[in-house]
Amino acid sequence: MSVSTIQCRLGANREIKKAVEAYWAGKNSVEDLTKAAADVKKENWTSLKKRGVTFIPSGDFSLYDHVLDHSEMLNVIPSRYQGLQLSPLDVYFAMGRGRQSEGVDVPASEMKKWFDSNYHYVVPELSPSTVFKLNRNKPRDEFNEAKSIGINTRPVVLGPISYLVLGKASRDAPSNFDPISLLPKLVPIYAEILSQLKQAGADWVQIDEPILVQDSALQYQTQFTQVYAELEKVAPKIMLTTYFGRLGENLTFVSKLKVAGLHIDVDREPKQIDAVVAAVKPTNVILSLGYVSGRAVWKIDMASTVTSAKKAISALSAERVIIATSSSLIHIPVALTSETHITAEQKDWFSFALEKAQEVAVLAAILSGSQDPLISSALEANRVSISKRREFEKNSDDTVRKRVASITPGMLERQNPYPVRREAQRKNMSLPKFPTTTIGSFPQTKEIRAARAKLTKNQITEAEYEEFIKKEIEHVVRFQEKVGLDLLVHGEPERNDMVQYFGERLNGFVFTQNGWVQSYGSRYVRPPIIVSDISRSGPITVKWSSYAQSITKKPMKGMLTGPVTILNWSFPRADVSREIQAKQLALSLRDEVLDLAKAGIKAIQVDEPAIREGLPLRHVDWDGYLKWAVDSFKLATAGVGDEIQTHSHFCYSDFNDIFPSIQRLDADVISIEASKSDLKLLTAFKQYGYSNEIGPGVYDIHSPRVPSEEEIRQRILTFLELIPENLLDCGLKTRAWKETEASLQNLTNAAKWARERN
Ligand SMILES: Nc1nc2c(c(=O)[nH]1)N[C@@H](CNc1ccc(C(=O)N[C@@H](CCC(=O)N[C@@H](CCC(=O)N[C@@H](CCC(=O)O)C(=O)O)C(=O)O)C(=O)O)cc1)CN2
Ligand SMILES: [Zn+2]
């Protein structure tokens, strides 16, 4: 019985984040960075080996993003990053985050959400003139690196079809160009990578084709069949890997592909197992069963997993079954052992990446009939811990449950339609034409983080911390007045993160000290864990927003994170539906919105950047999700009077396919990220005749680069062709003050120019 983890690449203490940021700041040499990377890889390989994992992944490590790694490796380097006199490493980072230094000025590539997760990948840009070339064989090099320390690994590669489908046509490509048309040119490069892996001594290779869990894969079945028949000839044994969803009707062609193994996600889609087992039974395919969740932090129920796996084994034989994690482990924290604040009772419910690796190994040992007393005691300990958790899950907050049960349709609707509200809002709050505002956060400086760290360690008092935050708010307010923004924000300095902050202040959550998960590049989050019914004990943000409003005559926008986003960026509980959890969150937020309005705040933004990413991977499941997701947002926001302007904000999203749902949110103003996504989505707003206000972002805040005033003017002109007036951008917490000042000055100048021009 073999055991595998699908990917495991992060350091337990954000070592890579620190090393990469130090490199960007010029405080770390390439050698330092390479050394930090080598240490993390070694640590992961050895700790997986120690835990009894037989198929240890390599080649999955990344300094920024694994899709970007493939682009670099395959020479998919857009022309704007070429000829800049930069080292290959700096070209790589320039593609990820843009670069503005020593005469070089290039924007970052677009990022998109990786399936339904909060991880962002860098989108490959492809065109008929793309010339694929093997710049370096990264999986082979890392395979050798592991081998040199005595560890035999199974390299991981993102499959060619998913790579192309996840990419986009570059701006210079003809309008009818589809990246998949490049497949015949790409396959020889993959053949080269794989044959070199075989030469290096790899027995197996894991090829990820995650698009196989989506409807769209069906149209590529011919390509799948041909490509894998070709690759199989030169490659090590291929473990074709899928995750996050079900194969569904794609199973018919997938089960006939020329591969040695197939990995499926049993955690997310337990029901698919019977069909998959039946489909592969007549073949020689080895089935890798992803039981142990790569997306949830709950301990696996070993007894029921063993029962299920035994069925598969009796159909296929033990030699043809591998026990695995469901997906890559980059979506969950690394180790539970470093948590000291979670109570022992709670800790016993969870399992993070390294504990998951242990779980797969124990499961495999049980299934192999191991007589080791350590294994039987692990099984017994698991039984006890699962039954304790089930006991805990029986506790419920009856007040919250009753409130959810008595939600009425009327609670989801504002008093009047938008045109009426618009008048009421104009009377309540005067804003110029092309009003400018920001998305909420201002730079989270070292000083702010240090102050919060001191508070956590009790080195300063709560009162001292509050004084510090107030000074910060005052600074942000004065800055916005000076630069000429119209609708102000308080800057969110009191928040460690827009989701974790609310999790920490609501009942029903548990949070970690060190449970970091990569979100993009060097940015990490600590998703809070929902463990029971959710409620609010009292106002959360009112103190800060009221203070901010009290020191300025300009209107101040309240700032909350929406129910769907809090849910999606937390680890949800497994015993209650996501719908119920979203509605419980919505009711708490509804109270907060009403409290803000009562305190005299006239505009309230409820961010829902995760609404699109939460969309199920299969079309048939969309409507059900969208119904409760939109209802939850409405439940949170619709309680206020007509005169209160509600805002919402979304980022990195392709809304064209869920447009009616965006409309149904009925927010008075929505602001969207538009600076990088080539205006595609704005075209949809025009097409669908969106009638409420829209603020297209004109400043890409994920890059340190400062957009020039001229650039912003050009964007405004483009937007004007598509949508009515309004001008906004996106959250600034990851930026430094220097570039924030320059960018926002350019932005308000451009708005002024637009007003005068009109
Ligand atoms: N949850 C979530 N998902 C999201 C977003 C988001 O804002 N939140 N935005 C989108 C983009 N994703 C993002 C994800 C992370 C960050 C981000 O800024 N992360 C910070 C950490 C934020 C944080 O938790 N800060 C804490 C802890 C900071 C910290 O590292 N403290 C030091 C100590 C500092 C000191 O002693 O001085 C430590 O713990 O070691 C705080 O401010 O309190 C980072 O990686 O650097 C930004 C965007 C999409 N998904
Ligand atoms: Zn955003």
Describe this entry's structure for a reader.
By secondary structure, the chain is α/β, with parallel strands linked by helices. The protein has 27 helices and 25 strands. The strands form eight sheets. Strands 1-14-13-12-11-10-8-2 form an eight-stranded parallel sheet. Strands 20-21-22-23-24 form a five-stranded parallel sheet. Strand 11, helix 9 (251-254) and strand 12 form a beta-alpha-beta unit. The N and C termini lie far apart (72 Å). The ligand Nc1nc2c(c(=O)[nH]1)N[C@@H](CNc1ccc(C(=O)N[C@@H](CCC(=O)N[C@@H](CCC(=O)N[C@@H](CCC(=O)O)C(=O)O)C(=O)O)C(=O)O)cc1)CN2 binds next to helix 17, strand 17 and strand 18.
Quick overview of this protein structure:
It comes from Clathrus columnatus. With 758 residues, this protein is of the alpha/beta class.
Low-confidence stretches: 723-729
| Overall mean pLDDT | 92
List how many beta strands DSSP finds: 25
Fraction of residues in helix: 40-55%
Looking at the structure, what is the overall shape?
A: globular
The biggest beta sheet is recorded as:
8 strands, parallel
**What gyration radius follows from the Cα positions, in whole Å?**
26 Å
Q: Which hetero compounds are present in the coordinates?
A: ligand 39S, zinc ion
Spatial sequence of strands, sheet with the most strands: 1-14-13-12-11-10-8-2
Strand content: 5-15%
Number of helical stretches of at least 4 residues: 27
Instruction: Output the structural class.
Output: alpha/beta
End-to-end Cα distance, whole Å, is 72 Å
